[in-house]
Write a structure and sequence with these properties.
The chain is of the alpha/beta class. The chain has helices spanning about 5-15, 45-55, 75-85, 100-110, 125-130, 145-160, 185-195, 215-220, 245-255, 260, 270-285, 285-305, 325-335, 365-380, and strands at about 30, 90-95, 115-120, 135-140, 170-175, 200-205, 225-230, 240-245, 315-320, 340, 345, 355-360. The chain folds into two domains: about 45-280, Type I PLP-dependent aspartate aminotransferase-like (Major domain) (Aspartate Aminotransferase, domain 2, 3-Layer(aba) Sandwich), CATH 3.40.640; about 285-380, Aspartate Aminotransferase, domain 1 (Alpha-Beta Complex). The structure holds pyridoxal-5'-phosphate.
Length: about 375
């Protein structure tokens, strides 16, 4: 029997039809995974990694310990140097996952007396990291720079913002939001951060591979950000994540990020796969194929007059708002009966009334799949 308090939480969640279940959807057409470029099943990446591990004599199954103890084999440094070079930054520090990276970073960097401003739609891993730090944090409206300015001004008037010379300000956003698929105006945001002397931090989890090496690089903003996060479980189809930072910041994280220190390092196969996936990203045309599919999806939405349902997005995540857990579940089940895997995103994962079908597009979705999916969606919505 579950303890009573837990039982109540389960009952409350069941009552709104929002219990999470572990499911798999074999044989369906993939409009739900984060494997935007199909790299998770690339035999080129698999074979190159196997060869690389053999060539470099890394034929071991596990790291044997934390990187600060026995787990820091030489491939780690090679891969981190290569990632830093690719992303035009001084240093890269690999974490075991994006979740680990965010809780490690945000619990270690902002200090007591510092102030954090974050977009209200920021990922749970960043929220969890912030809640583990001793800094004060304030949210601003999603992708709304004017609201950020208002919040900053309000805090300046009401409290001690900038009165203490050692106080640091951090502004956090994502370059592609995981639920809406939309992006902030990164140029304006970075300029505003410069204006107020804030450190700008950008999570690029859903931009890497979708927009080449990420939006910060596409916009040449590398020097305007204090730290960037790239994750490898999405566009690169493998596992892990890296913070792209200055060398002194990397050294700080190695010393103070607890999710980096107190865990077994990734096995060589994971680290080798990261570099093979980067090689494939740089040499293949998968990003361009994905961009073509995004354009096709968006133009078909317009043809079927469905734009009003969709959050405006140029990324691989296209969200169709269908209020109510029951309704969105029903439509996703109908799509499933017709062979399409599209996940319903329910409240409380998103705000009440903002329940949605989250379409994830891929380089390997065919034109026919996209057209018949949207045709079916339009009949189900009308
Ligand atoms: C914006 C964002 N940051 C971080 C993460 C966590 O990354 P990982 O899956 O590697 O733990 C996710 C994954 O859902 C994400 O969407």
């Amino acid at each position: 029997m579950l303890p009573k308090k837990l039982q109540i939480k389960v009952e409350e969640r069941s009552a709104i039809n929002a219990m999470r279940k572990l499911k798999s959807s074999p044989g369906l057409i993939d409009f739900s995974s984060n494997d935007y470029l199909g790299f998770s099943s690339s035999s080129i990446i698999f074979n190159n990694t196997t060869q690389l591990l053999k060539d470099k004599n890394h034929q071991i199954n596990g790291a044997t310990g934390s990187r600060l103890l026995s787990g820091n084999y030489s491939l780690y440094q090679e891969v981190e140097s290569k990632i830093a070079e690719i992303h035009k930054v001084e240093s890269a520090l690999i974490f075991n996952s994006g979740y680990d990276a965010n809780i490690g970073f945000f619990s270690a960097i902002p200090q007591r007396g510092d102030v954090i401003f974050y977009d209200e739609s920021i990922h749970a891993s960043i929220r969890d990291g912030i809640s583990m730090s001793n800094a004060k944090s304030y949210k601003f409206k999603h992708n709304d720079i004017q609201d950020l300015q208002n919040v900053v001004d309000r805090i300046k008037d009401s409290s001690n913002l900038n009165k203490d010379e050692s106080q640091e300000i951090y502004v956090i956003t994502e370059s592609v939001f995981s639920m809406d698929g939309d992006s902030p105006d990164l140029v304006k945001l970075s300029n505003y951060c410069t204006e107020i002397g804030a450190h700008f931090i950008v999570d690029e989890a859903h931009a890497l591979g979708v927009f080449g090496l990420g939006l910060i690089q596409q916009l040449s903003l590398e020097d305007k950000v204090f730290a960037r996060l790239v994750t490898f479980g999405k566009g690169l189809g493998c596992h892990g994540a890296a913070f792209l930072v200055a060398t002194d910041l990397k050294e700080y994280l190695v010393n103070f990020a607890r999710s980096f220190i107190y865990t077994t390092a990734l096995p060589p196969h994971s680290v080798g796969t990261i570099i093979s996936a980067y090689d494939e990203l740089i040499t293949s045309e998968k990003s361009e194929n994905l961009q073509e599919n995004i354009r096709l999806f968006k133009s078909e939405i317009i043809n079927k007059k469905l734009e009003a349902y969709f959050v405006a997005s140029d990324s691989a995540i296209q969200s169709c708002i269908i209020a109510g857990n029951d309704r969105v579940i029903n439509i996703s089940l109908k799509l499933k009966e017709n062979g399409f895997d599209v996940k319903p995103i329910l409240s409380p994962t998103v705000k009440l009334g903002q329940e949605r079908l989250r379409f994830c597009l891929h380089s390997y979705n065919t034109e026919e799949e996209i057209l018949s999916l949207i045709h079916l969606l339009s009949t189900l919505l009308k």
